[in-house]
Write a structure and sequence with these properties.
Low-confidence stretches: 1-9, 476-494
Number of strands: 2
Number of helices: 23
Strand content: under 5%
Helix content: 55-70%
Strand order of the largest sheet: 1-2
Order of helices and strands: HHHHHHHHHHHHHHEEHHHHHHHHH
Amino acid sequence: MAEVPAAPHRTTGSTLLHPLSALLGIPLDQINFVACQLFALLAAFWFRIYLGPSHASSAVRHAFATLFGIYFAVFCFGWYSIHLFVLVMMNYGIMNTASIPNIHRYSFVVAMGYLTLCHISRIYIFHYGILTTDFSGPLMIITQKITTLACQLHDGIGRQAEELTAEQNRLAVKTRPSLLEYLSYLLNFMSIIAGPCSNYKDYIAFIEGRHVHMKLLEVNWKQKGYDRLPDPSPTGAVMYKLCITLVSLVLFLTLTKNFPMAYIIDNEFLDKTPFLSRLGYLYVVTQAAKPKYYFAWTLADAVNNAAGYGFSGVDERGAFRWDLLSNLNIWNIETATSFKIYIENWNIQTAAWLKRVCYDRAPWYPTALTFILSALWHGIYPGYYFTFLTGILITLAARAIRSNCRHYFLSSVPLKIAYDVATWVVTQLAVCYTVAPFVMLAVEPTVKFYKSMYFHMHILSILVLLVLPIRPQARSVRKPQNEAIQNYVKSKDK
């Protein structure tokens, strides 16, 4: 099968919670992960209340966030955490010695190269049978942050303003960070375990106490009905996200283990179950695999919000929004009527990272290169590459169908509803078909699965691309610096 069973309690991390692990029958590394995140949640509340910008200097806030992050990494991963610190310090050296025109290239190659070597060592040297600890998650987040900062530093110092898009200009970093700022950004306790990746300027604004005010100014808070600058509290958002986390945990403990993905390639199941029933079961097991991601990402978002980080502005109704660092939108995922909408609402911060470091900078084939980078970043299991290469094909086919057919169904409400229902069904099944190898990991079960599905999505996608004309997709237009300044001045004058 795809996964090799591992001893449930062998880990390089702390064994302090071994009795709890044995009592619950849950691997110790997972217990350590949840314990650290819950402790981080409490620390985040304390950090916001007692080490807020009005009570402590930026240096103190940086130091506290960094030291606690290092402690969490060592607690969870033990000596494996050395990999995190080695990568961080190597790229700090690159950031301070490399020429600005090449800083993003060197940082990208070193960070992705080191991450890939660690993926290889974990799979083919340790092979999961020796130790269960998976340190690749934090390493993947740190790789995102390193490359994000390098690209934004290159934009801020090494490129002319007229060469940048409006977003690149807004996020450009004008000076190299100090060692403390750099370590805090990469290793802070809010994101060291489960992320998400954030922009360097947003993080520094949060530490310095400018984060909320900066976002309020961006949305022009006076037009939202406030007569003075408000001071939004994240408590409501945190409680809401903790409720989602709790529901996700219950679903994970009840559904995920009862509907394993491996069953869809069981010989008896394949022999006795008709094709349409197999498609239905594929949807069920894919749904059952989601709660663990909903749990981890929503809890990580709540931790950042509890610290006062993640404010994104005010919505149309005048309510405060705390979704700057949200990694998913569950409603949009479950109701997505296109492959594009689904991808945009799943692992949002990783999608934003891929866009900023690859898609917006790729000189050619941006979609293909972005999918390939995503697969490489996730790891070297063959299943990842089956998933992302299939994703390229289905994305192009879905884009062709939408651009050629959608306008025929907008003339009446019944037609539009029929179109939405049909595209929802196809999208959900296409996603299930695409991500199954991501869970199976290995070549043999993946090929067996696709054979059992008669490669139907591959064949249909190829036929669509052969029959329907492909219309070129408009790339983002770069806004000159003077236009960006004019827009900013106009927003300030309103």
